[in-house]
């Protein structure tokens, strides 16, 4: 399926997209005017995000609350305790974070990140939105967030992962390069991935158009 670009990216001008990023992340970065969701990318109570890349932590469960979702108690217990070994093994199998644009083949069951999303879905109270937000916390360059607003904007309600990958790879990675350029122009740090830039631009586009928001990217 063909992905539909947000209106703010449908022209050659970057002005509206940069304004959306600045509004979301604040100026200066994470200033008092930032949306609460802006803290999703950097939240850490330990200061050791890199050392926690291959295991889910309580910080990850806190971080998704900045995107207006809650991991229910039974699912939290599974993620951090009873199912932790299996889920963390899938995180390890994914390998280090890398850009989705560099994945050459369509993604399908058997790819560890796909299987991790499936495993998270099996937990009580975890659906596609919460599962993708949890994985995006651990692999922000590789795994896009799905939610009802972004999927309506992009036309990816039925399938999201591969259409995003294909859009990033089209025209020799033109969209991926543009997202990195927008990140720089908006004064955002490198920890904000191209995928997250895309998520935020799409979500802000949907918010401005009054699309329905079922506890998604931001309150």
Description:
The protein is mostly helical. It has one domain (7-96, 103-208). The chain contains 9 helices and no strands. Keywords: Plasmid.
- Number of DSSP strands? 0
The share of residues in helices is 40-55%
Order of helices and strands: HHHHHHHHH
Category by helix and strand content: mainly alpha
Poorly predicted ranges: 215-219
Rg measurement, Å = 16 Å
Envelope shape: globular
Task: Write a concise synopsis of the structure shown.
49% of the residues lie in helices and 0% in strands.
From the structure above, extract its key features.
219 residues; plasmid; DUF6308; 49% helix; globular
What's the structural blueprint in terms of helices and strands?
Elements: H1 15-25, H2 58-65, H3 73-82, H4 84-94, H5 112-121, H6 128-138, H7 148-154, H8 161-185, H9 194-208
Helix pairs in contact: 1-9, 2-6, 4-5, 5-6, 7-9, 8-9
């Amino acid at each position: 399926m063909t992905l539909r670009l947000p209106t703010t990216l449908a022209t050659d001008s970057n002005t509206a997209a940069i304004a959306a990023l600045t509004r979301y992340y604040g100026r200066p970065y994470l200033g008092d005017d930032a949306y609460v969701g802006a803290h999703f990318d950097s939240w850490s109570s330990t200061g050791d995000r890199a050392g926690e890349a291959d295991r889910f932590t309580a910080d990850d469960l806190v971080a998704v609350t900045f995107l207006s979702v809650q991991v229910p108690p039974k699912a939290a217990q599974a993620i951090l305790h009873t199912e932790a070994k299996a889920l963390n093994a899938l995180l390890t199998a994914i390998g280090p974070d890398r850009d989705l644009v560099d994945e050459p083949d369509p993604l399908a069951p058997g790819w560890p990140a796909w299987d991790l999303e499936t495993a998270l879905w099996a937990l009580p109270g975890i659906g596609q939105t919460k599962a993708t937000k949890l994985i995006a916390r651990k692999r922000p360059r590789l795994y896009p967030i799905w939610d009802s607003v972004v999927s309506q904007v992009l036309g990816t309600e039925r399938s999201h992962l591969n259409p995003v990958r294909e859009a990033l790879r089209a025209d020799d990675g033109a969209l991926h390069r543009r997202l990195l350029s927008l990140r720089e122009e908006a004064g955002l740090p490198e920890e904000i991935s191209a995928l997250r830039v895309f998520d935020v631009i799409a979500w802000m586009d949907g918010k401005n158009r009054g699309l329905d928001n079922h506890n998604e990217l931001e309150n």
